[in-house]
Amino acid sequence: MRRYLCEVRWLEAAEIRARARRRSRRTALVVGLVLVGTLSATTIAMFGRPWNYPPAVEDPAVSASVSPAGQVASMRSDVPRDALVQQSDLAIRTELQLDEPAPGGTVDLGPGLGRCSAGTATQAWASRSQTLLSRSPDSVDQLGDILVVQDLYRFRDDGARRLFEQVRQAILACPQWGEVRTADHNGSPVLVETTRRWDTPRVDFAGDESLLLRHSVSSVHDHVNGDVHRVTNSPDLRVVLRVGDLVTVLRMADEAKLVRLADVAARRMCVAANPRC
């Protein structure tokens, strides 16, 4: 494990602290791996057939609820592991699966979008997160590329529906916003103007509700000597998907494969959702 940690390339401290606040119960290893580098698109093969996985095993973590007609129904309150995307759902062999349940919290949609939300974000009841990594082609002592990052949340009552409505409202409220700050470059001040943009190129393609959220960041660096440099980062892609009272956020580098994986995730979530599909 120590050898793995030595290979971790840390991102900016601000992003690490932000992630840590949202996931205070995660272990340091999971936090580091989720934030490492960029997701690899070139090493991802075709997905396995989604109907080849076994059915979910009933879990004792259920609660009883009474319908208006007086019938008692079984309601799941946990977030089971078999509701996540499985290693067998990917044709490429994965080296490591990091998985951890956690209490509920705010759904992680990436940096910045929370500023556009009106009011308090809907809180999840319970959650579970995982990271799937590929096998390293160079050494067994090195971690491979991050293939999939997934957060899965369970909500009470109509919380999952309200969460989706809040996401849509946030994107409509500010599809983009900018900020200006001063940075230091070789002892000289640099004016940095950053613009963040969000759009949803695809909606309602899986589950009860779904959207492909694309977050693009560009910046202009204005040096005191008059030099101006423009930097555009690769977009961050996330699928936000709802099935019943469950909401998942999937991250992957390739847009087409991410959309296909969302359909697999929806089928996995069906077995644990309230009500079942």
Structure in words:
This is PknH-like protein. Keywords: Membrane, Transmembrane, Transmembrane helix. It contains five helices and eleven strands, in the order αααβββββαββββββα. It has 277 residues and is an alpha+beta fold. The chain has one domain. The strands form two sheets. Strands 3, 4, 5, 6, 7, 8, 9, 10 and 11 form a nine-stranded antiparallel sheet that branches. Strands 1-2 form a two-stranded antiparallel sheet. It is globular and about 65 Å long. The two termini are 40 Å apart. The N terminus is likely disordered.
**Largest beta sheet, briefly?**
9 strands, antiparallel
Radius of gyration: 20 Å
Low-confidence stretches: 1-73
Helix proportion of residues, in percent?
Answer: 10-25%
The H-and-E topology, N to C, reads as HHHEEEEEHEEEEEEH
Q: In whole angstroms, how far apart are the ends?
A: 40 Å
Give the total of domains.
Answer: 1
Structure classification: alpha+beta
Mean pLDDT rating = 75
Gross morphology: globular
Tell me the total number of β-strands.
11
Q: What portion of residues belong to β-strands?
A: 35-45%
Helical segment tally? 5
Primary descriptors:
277 residues, 9-stranded antiparallel β-sheet, two-stranded antiparallel sheet, 5 helices, globular, disordered N terminus
Short description:
This is PknH-like protein. The protein contains five helices and eleven strands; from the N terminus they run αααβββββαββββββα.
